[in-house]
Amino acid sequence: MDPLEQMPKSDTIKLRERYIGQSCKLFYRSSPLKIVRGKGQYMYDERGEQYLDCINNVAHVGHCHPDVVRAGQEQMALLCTNNRFLHDNLVVCARRLTSLLPDPLSVCFLVNSGSEANDLALRLAQAHTRNTEIIIVDHAYHGHLTSMIDISPYKFNRPNGTGKKDFVHVSPCPDVYRGKYRDVDYPGEDLGVKYADDVRRICGEIKARGKGVQAFIAESLISCGGQILPPENYFRNVYKHVREAGGVCIADEVQVGFGRVGSHMWAFQRYGSDVIPDIVTLGKPIGNGHPVAAVVTTREIATSFKNTGIEYFNTYGGNPVSCAIANSVMEVVEREGLQEHAQKVGKHLVAELEKLAQRHPIIGDVRGAGLFVGIELVRDRARRIPATEEASHVVSRMKEEKILVSSDGPDNNVLKLKPPMVFSIDNANHLIAVLDEVLDEVEIDVDEIQPPKTIATPAKPAVSLMERVNSAPAKAKSVLIKAN
Question: Long-range contacts for 82-90 (Cβ within 8 Å, ≥24 apart)?
């Protein structure tokens, strides 16, 4: 066994099956990885095999960055307590966070996770507006707390999901490739305005029912919904409509903040200096794997929350160890120029993927900002039929080639790339070369077995991938499509 193992992998699997809830997601469930250490953009299994990590946006500045590790170790050796005592780490962290955000975002609440941050954001919004109605984006995911499942169609719309609550209002996902308003259907029109008009209509419907808008919440770039980059003028107009209706605007930056988009520190800043949310939620990257997150808001909203008379206390939120780690992460991002690095590598990666799309018709769309990239796979470019099973096969094959990617989106056909920020040009080139080979395998099937256009519907394939493989010529049958 590897010295970092306590038991053989087979025993680890048995114990997980026995003691860990089966609903807890396990990557590559049919052949799971046992990861025992990480460094930079790489993860290592119990056999010492190295995997290029293209999905771990949690390890923002790289797995086990020595400066971040040291900061946590040194503070842990001194003190770890709650934030009802004075401690320099807490105020230094809050000062640094607010210095990275535009005015008037100036008051911090430190918490443990993105889910908790989003939950607190809704409490702040309710205290400030005293309204009940929440507007969300279709396919969105904001966390695993009950309050977050209620505003996450990604969860409540599942076949056995809880369904939409009456106080929740779902606006169309601003996806110009596959959404309600597609670029091919509305050439030359401002799709940001069109999607925002749906939010305006929802605000009007809420008012007509005698209710008030509490908040609009959306990720600045929509991750689980398919790596979506909302069009220009979307947030500018949505924020205007929501504020006119008496609500506040919440930007969920849990997955996309801290320089990941390259051009700016925060993803919402991509849409203009005048696009400023009332509340920003932060998580994942700030702790580089350590559980720490934050809510940053205006003094006015923080005062409304204070005036409720209910004190806010979080046992671990803002503890000295978490704040030491968060401070170190922010220092590393600045010192190592990781925002600029994300811009450079991301541009190269997207450009190379666009070249790949010219060779592989299964790539329907490439979209990205910095090191937030989506590759949408389709069975037919004209009708944009989602290649769901092919995406699953690609994820599985990339893992066999020691590259970790994942798929998501409403049809689970979008390959997601959100690697640690130290992901390099060489890493991008390696990813492209391997993906090129894997797509060659998949397209043997697509080219030879794709059903006639008169049979398939725009939304779903006419037959399953395995059915098509079984009825394919011998050449195509040689491609084994594996379940993820």
Answer: 82/313, 82/314, 82/315, 82/316, 82/318, 82/319, 83/110, 83/314, 83/317, 83/318, 83/319, 84/313, 87/320, 87/323, 89/320, 89/323, 89/324, 89/327, 90/318, 90/320, 90/323
